[in-house]
Amino acid sequence: MDRFLFLTVDGLAKGAVYAAFALAVVLIWRAARIVNFAQGAMAVATVYAAYSVTQATGSYWLGFAAALASGLVLGAGIERVVMRFVPHTSPLNSVIVALGLVLLLQAVLGALYGNEFRPVETPFSRTGITVGGVALLSRYDLFVLGAVLLLVVLLALLFTRTSTGLRMRSAAFAPEVSRLLGVNVAGLLTFGWALAAAVGALAGMLVVPTELGLHPNTMDMVFVSSFTAAVVGGLDSPIGAVVGGLAVGLVLSYAAGYLGSDVTPIATLALLLAVLLIRPGGLFAGVRTRAV
Amino acid sequence: MTLLQVAGLVVGYGAAPVLHEVDLTVPPATIVTVLGANGAGKTTLLRTLSGLLRPIGGTIRFDGGSLAGVPVERVVRLGLAHVPEGRGVVAELTVEENLRLGGVWQADRRDARLAQDEVYELFPALAARRRHAGHQLSGGERQMLALGRALVARPRLLLLDEPSLGLAPRITAQIMALLRRLCDETGLAVLLVEQNVRSALSVADQGVVLSLGRVVAAADAAQLRDDAGLRHAYLGF
Amino acid sequence: ATVACSSDDQGGGGKAAVPGVTDTEIVVGTHMPLTGPASAGYSKIAPASKAYFDFVNANGGVNGRKITYKVMDDGYNPANTQQVVRQLVLQDKVFAILNGLGTPTHSGVLDFLKTNRVPDLFVASGSRSWDQPDKYPGTFGFNPDYTVEGKILANYVKSNFAGQKTCFLGQSDDFGTDSLAGVEKVLGKDGVTAKETYVVTNTNVAPQIGAFKTAGCQVVILATVPGFTALALGTAARLSYKPQFVVSNVGGDLPTLAKLLGEAKGLTEGLLGANYLPLMFDANDPWIQLFQKVNKDFGGGAEFDGNVIYGMSVAYLFVQVLQAAGKDLSRESLLAAVEKGGYQGPGLAPLRYAKGDHSGYGGERMVKVSGGVQQFFGPTYETDEADAPVKEYAGTPATPPANGVPTA
Amino acid sequence: MTTLVRHLMWTAIAAAALLAVTYALPPFRNYQLATAAAYLCATAGLTVLVGLSGQLSLGHGAVMAVGAYAVALSQNRLADAGLTGNGVLVLSLALGVLAALVGGLIVGLAAARLRGPYLAGVTLAVAVALPAVTTVWAGVFHSDQGLSVYLDPPPAGLGYDFPLERWQSWLALAGALLVMLLLANLLRSRFGRSLRAVRDDEAAARLAGIDVARTQVLAFVVSAGCAGLGGGLLAVLTQSVSPGAYSLTLSLFLLMAVVVGGLGRLAGAVWGALLLVVLPDLTHTIVASLTLSPAAAQRLEGNLPLAVFGLTLIVVMIAAPGGVQGVVRRLLP
Amino acid sequence: MDEDPHGLTLDGVTVQFGGLTALEDVRLTVPPGKVVGVIGPNGAGKTTLFNVICGFVRPTRGELRFGGRTLRPRPHRLAALGIGRTLQGVGLFAGLSVVENVMAGATHTARSGFTSALLGLPRSDRDERRLRDEAMALLTQFGIAEHAQAEPAALPYPVRKKVALARALAARPRLLLLDEPAGGLGAEDIAELAELVVTLPGRDDGGHSVMLVEHHMDFVMSVCDEVAVLDFGRLIAVGPPETVRDDPAVAEAYLGPTLEGRTA
Ligand SMILES: Nc1ncnc2c1ncn2[C@@H]1O[C@H](COP(=O)(O)OP(=O)(O)OP(=O)(O)O)[C@@H](O)[C@H]1O
Ligand SMILES: Nc1ncnc2c1ncn2[C@@H]1O[C@H](COP(=O)(O)OP(=O)(O)OP(=O)(O)O)[C@@H](O)[C@H]1O
Ligand SMILES: [Mg+2]
Ligand SMILES: [Mg+2]
User: Fold this and answer.
1) Which residues of D touch A102 (CB under 8 A)?
2) Strand order in the sheet with B206-211
């Protein structure tokens, strides 16, 4: 029973960081209707920025701010300089460009910082608070959970309560009609990318300390898990991203704990299939579109 | 006095122009209907006016200022609303959200809300489906929504591309009557593109006939309606 | 080299041309992960070897020939390895492949290299696959194999932590399995209380470490790469669990771990491990002094750590072998030179090369971290991957030649 | 002239030309040609799936692996049983295709219910799960290290110094030509039309009497069969299989190849397969020709070719969204 | 209304979407060789009615019979059962040429299997040739043969509508469902379409009964043998066009006072 409790808590803690990154995936999907495969690499770039700032100033929080700021700049820059010019003849075009960006970003980071791990600090202790002999969540885990919670609330508010959220969604779904209605589609797209990259930066700051260390490829597997999480949740839903993230975290933890670590990728696949075969649009899918 | 003045407008998709030297004026509080066969260039005209297409030549002046180079999203702020062909409802958003979108650029939130309520009054079918997604609506319901959404913007000039498409005769008649009323009461001007010639002419003040991208006739609507010769020559009935 | 082939001759003298060898140059190639997830740390090895070769070249080369080292990035992807090794052999006509890195990557090219009779020296991995003289006569290992190491680590645990519950965490490939095999040879099947594995794609080892804690393990032997060593140490700390960790040399380089752990580098205090090459903390070690000088002059001043030492040690051995092969260099003479054995260089343990033995180092010495410094202690041990006992090795380490370049 | 005769004629012409090419090329280039041919099987299949049926697969590398492992297991088992020779090789390749077909069927059945990114998610998970399968059943697949593949030397009739690489490229080219022939036939038939119809408008396709789910599954199966053959051939070329060689990266590269080659046309798949082989080689050569200081070389080695590769992808997609084939068609009258 | 064994019969069909009743207890028969028009206000359930017949929507209650047998429609089986349909809007395959679009409509009549297609056997070739010939014949009949190789997107709207109709006819349906066939067409094109539709029941390739939804009253009046009126999902009138038009309930619900006043 202790073991179950332990695995559950640990799975939730790990799931929270997947959720954080899944939120960034959802955000860009809602803002631009693309799955941004470069999101992981972009997040890594911002964490490197934070690393440099923290190295120079000695302050974690300055680095944290730098990550968010560089996320905004990087996201906006990529939209302005690259994505804007990708022709919309097929949704695959942007997927391929994003993959190209992954290679480019990782190469640049590798050249700048070297292809080796760099340590990243955590602002709070990662030592679990022990209750009855079982190490439960650490302060850092609570920080992550809190940040994810705050983020999902803010995003939900943005999308449901503000007109910017409404404009972002309509711009993503129907760019031309939105422009006719006075929506600055190009501006919102830039904003969406900037915001998503900033959320990705935040997620990166939360995720990287739980990984092996900072490396140009650190987020590769995190992206896969988080994308899975976002898909499980239903790509359109911030709440779904969080639920999906926690579900993926739990499944990985249980599988590793009870079945062996080898099985974890298969368990993820099983989770994905189990959810999607019952709900092809994810757990929090919207209504199925009327076909005719 | 004119609200919209188009002179020598030339528009094309590739090299060959689709519209040739089109001249057109729309005074305030007037309904001008643009008629013409399929492919005459009616939609092209409206898309150019709202800035979706860039003209090759000619001028467009709205309310005294030139529209050249004004981005699409700013045109609506000048008071020109375009209901595009094929409904243009954002299928993934709810009816309510679609309507909110109509007034999203307005600073005056209260007035935008008021305008929404007016639309629900105009189209009770929409009021019953506030929370339904756009794609759940029937074809005609979408048409009503698109029109209603444009009205929320409280435009001074309304560009309508075949509003009667897919609408029941009764609704069509209602809409035409509504346009007339808005014109008379609020000074709204309408540029109405229609295939449904009869109902268009029944409310319009003036008619313009396009053929292969050229204006071949421009006259009072009553004249087009009543002059069998003109009708046969340009409208085929 | 038969007379019939003499039409292919490039140089005079009536002897057959040797691929990659001219009177002034020897071209050697390697495949390494320079990019991609596995590149961390490893990407420094080949540049270090290259720096040492440049140093040798600056000193006149080997028998008047300069060494050109072609490094190809395979991103640790076996398919890429296939491509780049073929390019090296078929297109660039290298003389030999040196220090190709990785078990899965290098396994794939063994047959190809054999068919083309390309010497395949000092593979950078502790797999036992490289020691198959009958099947792969041209392939030689370098690292002590994982089983040898497992035995040595377990031997230490057996004599110093008698009666304590010992557990094992290994990578889920032959690094882990071979190492575990070595450990179990010494401790017995029941001597290991809990065995867990990890996969490199899943960076959460809390379930495994949690299981050790629950099982009450007091000693944990790690067959892990540096990232996962750090992760294991960090995770245990998070769980307020403090076993004695004993780690493979693959994942036990202190500078690397300290960088990975950052603030938490204190966790390495007391960490036990084993190694067979000099440690950078021995500032007085003449090898370290030599390598640091080479690194400064020819390596662009790369950050000095175990990977640099490793790369240079391999290069040193290769130069030794070239010298031994003599002026009349051919692939056959090179292989014969390796098999002749008896090389002494920076390594502490014996290099086992002989006619029927293509394995590399046959032993290790225990190391311990204390006061933020990793240092050797106790005797050097040697053993084999079979059932030979772990025994002390009496040999003393060599000192480098005065000018840093070995002679025949 | 029937489709078959016409396509056979084209195949024969291509085969003759390629045969001449294999004699002209040095061994390494032959090996590259062979690799491109093996990739072509997979990219052609992927083009049918992504370009024509409109379903996205991020897991085609894994499908190739299924074919590759089946070929490896079969070759090795049969060789252990004393059965060798080219007939056996053909049998093994057929088994590889069969295994991939079954795999494609399973994924396809799930895929027929899924759209867009959801399908992408599942195929991505398949790609990631593959290495796990090889470790969980390590007894058969030998985890990360993989299996080596038994391959007979070139037939004695070709002469004793016949280069192995040329023989390998014959094998791979034969496979690729077969795939191209069959797919060309298929695309000209009503199946090709149904695929495109389903891609363009599902509701209208159903009303036209096309079983959408069945068509989508069929596309998966066909494309998996091709990928399986490609994987099998790759196993024969490299004489080894391991999960690392069929990683997610390969799956993504295959997708890049078909899009950059020109989506939806078999010719695009040819460009794609060539690009997969030539582009890394080219970027490496360009970078290798630069002389760098040791410090710069430290940093840039490996990274610079990667950057050039990434940049090429971005530029091509922005400048020529129709891919290479799109450009070719524009240039040719 | 008596039931003809060869027609289509809807028996008490009810459809609910959540709380919304889109169709309520609809009973209707489409006899063979007749053109039946369905009219009604927007959102009355006309498209839904078609969707039920096509199997896109499962009725909450009620059943369908076609050719004397109970019909449990699934969209892709429909063509084989002898029912064709055009979509509100156009719904052509953008990536197929015009002739391929029409050929796609007759997919189910192909006899050659997958293997012969894969091998490119003459069987498959023959099938293709037959489909192509039939498609070309239809295009010729509709006077749009010159556009056969064009991509639909480049064509004028009326031509696209004709292609859609040709595609539906290519399957040789016994019953043809047309959803707003005249929508978006100009007066001349509507007149042409009307001429075409009235000939459908008597066509030499077997003849079709037609069920159509349309808001263009002149068109409905001129082509339909019978008109059914839906309002709020309920059938409020069925009968010959003139009777229905003069029904005050219909005028109230559908035609509206102004228009009715003008056309009368
Ligand atoms: N995107 C486009 N690219 C190229 N040509 C176009 C495009 N859109 C329209 N055209 C052509 O421009 C001409 C005018 O089209 P337009 O849509 O303006 O006509 P319309 O009068 O609105 O017709 P309809 O009554 O069918 O809506 C037509 O010949 C059409 O083929
Ligand atoms: N999938 C659905 N989910 C929810 N409501 C739906 C759905 N499909 C249709 N409806 C509702 O059912 C009613 C009938 O729709 P239907 O499309 O059948 O109308 P229609 O008679 O074809 O109207 P129109 O003439 O405007 O096309 C409408 O109010 C519509 O909003
Ligand atoms: Mg139009
Ligand atoms: Mg309808």
Assistant:
1) 310
2) B80-83, B157-161, B189-193, B31-35, B206-211, B214-220
In Å, how far is C242's CA from the nearest CA of chain A? Answer: 12
Residue count of chain E = 264
A184-200 residue pLDDT tens: 999 999 999 999 999 99
Residue to substitute from D314, D316, D327, interface A, most A β-carbons within 10 A: D314
Separation of CA E154 and ligand 1 centre (Å): 9
Q: How would residue D222 be classed by pLDDT, with cut points 50, 70 and 90?
A: very high
Q: What is the pLDDT of residues B11-40, one digit of tens each?
A: 998 778 899 999 999 999 999 999 988 888
The pair phi, psi for residue A199, each rounded to 5°, is -65, -40
Domain ranges of chain B: 4-79+156-235, 90-154
Determine the 3-state secondary structure of C30 from DSSP.
strand
Q: Output the furthest CA–CA distance in chain E (Å, rounded).
A: 66
Query: What are chain D's partners, defined as 3 or more CB pairs within 8 angstroms?
Result: A, C, E
pTM score: 0.91
User: From ligand 3's centre to the CA of B41, what distance in Å?
Assistant: 7
The confidence score (pLDDT) of residue C5 equals 40
Mean pLDDT is lowest, of A2-16, A276-290, E189-203, for: A276-290
Q: Decide if A257 touches C, using CB distance below 8 A.
A: yes
- Mean local confidence (pLDDT), B141-169: 90
Tell if the CB–CB gap between E96 and D196 is shorter than 8 Å. yes
CA distances from B41 to B61, B194, D23, D194, D277 (A): 20, 12, 61, 34, 50
E232 Cα to the center of ligand 4, angstroms: 13
Q: Considering all CA atoms of chain C, what is the largest pairwise distance in Å, rounded to the nearest integer?
A: 73
User: Would you call A242 helix, strand, or coil by DSSP?
Assistant: helix
What is residue E91's predicted lDDT score, i.e. its pLDDT?
A: 86
Distance from CA of A278 to the nearest CA of E (A): 19
What's the half-sphere exposure (Cβ side, CA atoms, 13 Å) at B190? 31
Check CB contact under 8 Å for C299 and D298.
yes
Interior angle at CA C61, CA C60 and CA C63, nearest 5: 100
Contact B73 A166 (CB under 8 A): no
φ/ψ of D189, rounded to 5, equals: -95, -175
Nearest to C207 among A138, A210, A253 (CB): A253
* Residue C4 pLDDT level (bands cut at 50, 70, 90): very low
Q: At what angle do helices C286-298 and C306-325 cross, to 10 degrees?
A: 90
Distance CA C361, CA C341 (A): 11
pLDDT of residue C15: 56
Query: E187 and B237 in contact by Cβ < 8 A?
Result: yes
Average confidence (pLDDT) over D177-181: 96
B138 lines ligand 2 (CB under 6 A): yes
Residue type, B143: Q
Q: What's the rounded Cα separation, in Å, for the pair C349 and C343?
A: 11
For domain B4-79+156-235, the question of CATH label 3.40.50.300 is answered with yes
Give B-chain residues touching A167 at CB under 8 angstroms: 101, 104
pLDDT tens digit sequence for D235-294: 999 999 999 899 888 998 999 999 999 988 899 999 999 999 998 888 888 877 887 776
Inter-chain contact C240–A130, Cβ cutoff 8 Å? Answer: yes
B170: which chain E residues are within 8 Å (Cβ-Cβ)? 41, 253-256, 259
Give Cα separations from A64 to A23, A29, A46, B161 (angstroms): 18, 25, 9, 52
Question: Is E47–A292 a contact, with Cβ atoms under 8 angstroms apart?
Answer: yes
State how far the Cα of E31 lies from the Cα of C15, in Å rounded to an integer.
98
Characterize the bridge pairing of strands C192-198 and B157-161.
unpaired
Instruction: Record the tokens describing residue B90, joined without a space.
Output: 């954002």
Q: What's the pLDDT at C8?
A: 42
Using a CB–CB cutoff of 8 Å, tell me whether A95 touches chain D. yes
